[in-house]
Design a protein that fits this description.
Blueprint (H helix, E strand, L loop, with lengths): L1 H20 L3 H17 L3 H15 L3 H26 L1
C-alpha cells in the first residue's frame, strides 16, 4: 500500500518543480491542491499547510514568494517521503 503512495509523491515532486520552472501558475496550483488532499489523508499537517500557502500564493503571484513556497512544499514533501520510506521496511 505504501509503494503507490511513494511513487505518486515522487511524481508530484517532479511535477511541482516542472510547473515552477515553466512559470505555470495553474499547474502549480493543481499540484499543490492534489498533494494537499493526500497530505490530509495521511495527516501530514505541515505539508497540507505548505500546499495551502502555495495555492494562495498562486492567486496573487509574486515569483519570489512563490519560489519560497515551492521550496517549503518540496522540503515538506521530502520529509513525508522519508517518513513513508522508513515505514516501508
Amino acid at each position: 500500500m505504501i509503494e503507490p503512495l511513494l511513487t505518486c509523491m515522487k511524481d508530484d515532486m517532479e511535477a511541482l518543480l516542472n510547473a515552477f520552472t515553466r512559470h505555470d501558475l495553474p499547474g502549480l496550483s493543481e499540484v499543490a491542491h492534489k498533494v494537499k488532499s493526500g497530505a490530509r489523508m495521511i495527516k501530514a499537517r505541515h505539508l497540507a499547510q505548505c500546499c495551502e500557502d502555495l495555492e494562495q500564493g498562486c492567486l496573487a503571484p509574486d515569483w519570489r514568494q512563490l519560489a519560497k513556497r515551492v521550496d517549503e512544499q518540496y522540503t515538506a514533501m521530502e520529509q513525508v517521503l522519508d517518513a513513508l520510506e522508513r515505514h516501508r521496511t
